[in-house]
Amino acid sequence: AYLDLKELKDILHLDGSTHLNIFFANSSDENVAGVSTWPWDKEALTHLGGIVLNPSVYGTFGHTDTMVHEIGHSLGLYHVFRGISEVDSCNDACLETEPSLETGDLCADTNPTPKYKGCGDPDPVNETCGPQHFVNTPFTNFMSYADDSCTNSFTMNQNARMHCYLDLVYHSWQPAAKPPPVAMAPQVVEQHHNSITLEWFPPISGQFFEREVGSVCDKCTEGRVLLQYASNSSSPLPCEPSGHWSPREAEGPPDVEQACESSVHTWSPTAGTEQGVVGLSECPPNGCMLQLEFQHPVVPDSLSMWVTFCSPEETALPAIHDILLLTVNGNNISLGPSNVFCDTPLTLRLDVQEEVYGVQIYTMEHHLEIDATLLASKPDSVLCKHCKPLRYRLLRQPPFTHAPHGLLLNEPIRRFTDREVAPRVTYTYQIQTLSSQSESEPSSPLVHELGAPYCGDGRIQSSKGEECDDMNFVNGDGCSSQCKKEPFFNCVEEPSMCYYYDGDGVCEDFERETGVRDCGLYTPSGFLDQWASSVDVSHDEKPYCSGEVAAGYPAATKTCQSKVFDLSDGVSQYAWFPCDADPSVLKYATFWLKAHFARPMVAAAAIIHLAADGTELVEQKQCNITVQLVDTKDGVHSLGEWRLSCRTNPLVIPVRHDLSVAFYHTKAVLVMFTCKFVAISGVGLRSFQSFDPITISGCQSNEIYN
């Protein structure tokens, strides 16, 4: 008999909220040395978290550092080869070409490396995405797969990542630790001829009270309001074996990566329903139901719900049929129907005087997805009554006359007006967080002189990196709290007035490269784009999925669809997809589109414009395409395999020419894929506008003008 890891941990049921559990269990797969729970997993602080090590491998030659490696995973570290050997395509968002905090293992002090078990740099390789030579690789790093005779270290960036997760996720493992610091420097929000007013953010962990083992103080916020995410869930609907879209996915804080896109990290009525019959099963007359319960019953002040996806095809409004508050006394309260927006949580103010322990949510929409639910108590909650508030100390150089070691602020306020200031004196301010036992590290410093400009004074200081200044610290109004322009906003004048420019019908200079709706597709200077004059496809059925629609200029203003259950008939008006393919062979079929161009040119890039990226609603597996160039002599040149995503649409694939052989003119682009929901609205060929290597090769040296 075999147990899976969840069954084993359920039987043992060892609490994981105050320490890291390490289990030893033989595995049916002898190649598995260990398995860890990531710090961002819902199970991280429960009995389902921790590390499982294979005792048949542990401690043997070559595996003495396995536990250190797995603890690294538990504290948020990826493999050092993630950016090379754990990517799926040449344009994978995690592909690492140089050390970076944003790609690969998210550490800027580990050089890119493939998976390699040797104690040295790997040999040069010639891969599909181009030749690569890896040097100074981190083979001595604990997060590599090198033999443990040479693994001996973590880097500074890796140490920082582990500290972040220890402080932000696993703080309950260290009850006697220092209070969390204020991460950012205080800000000047107002000044006069004789005073400077400062404000600062709460500690980085979001805590307002001291940590106490076994208490709820880490969930109490300003005003002694207790905030709780759902901790228990159920639904009469069936669940998928994988756990995707199960009620448990609606527990805990929001964890959907991208709002308004379907995600398996949510509850949905379609969970447990086979893909082919989604939409056929009906919800009961009162709606499909999800029940969520909270750990501590409270008299509520508000209820917030993250509904992160609603199918545009379902028009039954409102999306939430009813919300039922479950009270301790049994007098359940109906809140009635509610409309929702996928990019904004639904927040309902409650006028309820009874203790609530849970909610029941009803919907008639099959493709609605709920990510999380938050219950906030009324102020001065009994459960927060005995929590000790964190206090602040304001440090200043030169020091305050009456408080040379810093000004202790007894009230838990985050605002102070310094009236002990003089002109032409440079002041440095820092904030410390204080608990009854210890004090935090000081915040980053603010350096300011009375009368000097600051973000929020209505004047744009370009030398300080300011892009706008609207005299407030609100995000979302076009000018951020850091005086930076927000996406799709432009700001003019002082104080700044900001407007949303995308789609206003005016093509302004600053949006020529990105504003497709106002300016059309952008061609870089020095290049020429031509779109296919004719198209051949693997599956062509007029008028439903004719390849002809993919010829010519693409439908650039149409929204690219992702995570779809079906492509509506409207897509076939402006994009080709294999809609007539035999359903019985769809799983194994290879589809292709061949775009021909009227003027063969030396290619600089191939451009694929998508109407849908092939990701299905249920499986949510991203799709790759293989792209080849066909030259005028019918030679074929591979550009490799590329990941499709609506976030990088259009997909621009650079062409690398081998300078040791003759150049070729491209007459066609061949695109191949296996996903039935890929829809292509146009294929382009980018060439050099005034530079043709083949023509130049026929010139004499004295005939070339640079």
TrEMBL record:
Residue segments, region Disordered? 232-256
> Can you give the residue ranges of the Peptidase M43 pregnancy-associated plasma-A domain?
21-166
Q: Which CDD domains match?
A: ZnMc_pappalysin_like (cd04275)
Q: Which GO terms describe its biological process?
A: cell surface receptor signaling pathway; proteolysis
Q: What is this protein called?
A: Pregnancy-associated plasma protein A, pappalysin 1
Member of which family? Belongs to the peptidase M43B family.
Query: What keywords does the record list, in alphabetical order?
Result: Disulfide bond, Repeat, Signal
Q: Is Repeat tagged as a keyword?
A: yes
Which top-level group of life is the source organism from? Answer: Eukaryota
GO-annotated molecular function: metalloendopeptidase activity
Short name of one Pfam family for this protein? PAPPA
Q: Which GO terms describe its cellular component?
A: extracellular space
Q: Where does the UniProt annotation place the signal sequence? A: none
- Tell me what organism the protein belongs to: Nothobranchius furzeri (Turquoise killifish)
Query: What positions does the domain Pappalysin-1 SD scarf occupy?
Result: 218-385
